[in-house]
Design a protein that fits this description.
The chain is of the alpha/beta class. The chain is built from 4 helices and 10 strands. It has a 6-stranded mixed sheet with strand order 3-4-5-6-8-7, covered by helices on one side. A two-stranded parallel ribbon has the order 1-2. The chain has a two-stranded antiparallel sheet with strand order 9-10. It starts with 25 loop residues before the first helix and ends with a strand.
C-alpha cells in the first residue's frame, strides 16, 4: 500500500511526489479481496506520523492485516492457514534482518512465509545483484515467497529452492497516473496444499 490513507490534506512531506488517499478508499480493498498489505515503502509516511497512524487505524478497522518496515505480522485465512509476513525496504533489507524476521514468524507458527521487499530501481526491468542476493537469502532462511515492488514494471519470476521469487509485478492499481510508462502487470495465483497429515506445501503457480 504505497501511500497513506488520511482525510487530512495538510502535513505533506516536502518531496516531489507526496501520495495520499482518503480513508474511504479502504473499501476498495475490502471490496476486492485484499486481505493484507505492506507499509514498507518510500511513500507510506508522505503525510508524516499523523498520516501513517491514520493508515494503520483505517486498516485495522477494516480488518486488513498490515506489516510494517522491518517487522512481522501474522494473517490467518478463513480456512485456518497461518501466513507469516515480513517486510523491509531499500537499505534496511539485510540478511540478518531477514533471518531474524523469518525466525520470529516460524516461532509464531507461520505455515507459509511471505517476504515483501521494496527495492530496485523504478522503470528497470532487471533485478539487480542486491535484489537477487537478498531474495535467495530469504528463501534459504525459510521463506516460501518473496514479493518485490518499487520498480513499477515487471521483472522476472524465479523458482528457487522450495520457494518462488517475484522480483516486481508492476502495478496492481495505480491511481493518479494518467500515463504510466508501462501498462504491463501480472496477477499470481499460488496454490497452497495441506496434506492429510496437516503438512503445508506450495502447489501450482498460475500467472
Amino acid at each position: 500500500l504505497e501511500g497513506p490513507l488520511t482525510d487530512e490534506s495538510s502535513g505533506a512531506q516536502s518531496k516531489k511526489f507526496a501520495f495520499r488517499g482518503p480513508t474511504a478508499y479502504s473499501a476498495i480493498m475490502t471490496g476486492s479481496s485484499v486481505e493484507a498489505v505492506t507499509l514498507a515503502n518510500n511513500h507510506a509516511e508522505d503525510y508524516g506520523k499523523a498520516g501513517y497512524d491514520s493508515t494503520k487505524k483505517v486498516l485495522k478497522d477494516a480488518g486488513i492485516t498490515y506489516v510494517e518496515k522491518d517487522k512481522t505480522a501474522m494473517h490467518t485465512t478463513e480456512s485456518g492457514l497461518k501466513i507469516g509476513l515480513y517486510a523491509s525496504s531499500f537499505a534496511n533489507i539485510t540478511a540478518k534482518g531477514i533471518q531474524n524476521g523469518i525466525a520470529q514468524l516460524k516461532k509464531d507458527g507461520a505455515e507459509i512465509i511471505i517476504c515483501a521487499f521494496h527495492w530496485g530501481e523504478e522503470g528497470v526491468y532487471y533485478a539487480d545483484g542486491t535484489q537477487q542476493k537478498m531474495a535467495k537469502t530469504a528463501i534459504d532462511a525459510g521463506a516460501d515467497v518473496v514479493y518485490g515492488h518499487h520498480p513499477h514494471v515487471l521483472q522476472k519470476i524465479e523458482q528457487y529452492g522450495s520457494g518462488y521469487i517475484f522480483y516486481s509485478l508492476g502495478n496492481f492499481s495505480f491511481g493518479g497516473a494518467a500515463l504510466p510508462q508501462d501498462y504491463d502487470t501480472a496477477l499470481l495465483q499460488l496454490d497452497v496444499i495441506r496434506d492429510e497429515n496437516g503438512k503445508v506445501r506450495l502447489g501450482e503457480l498460475n500467472v
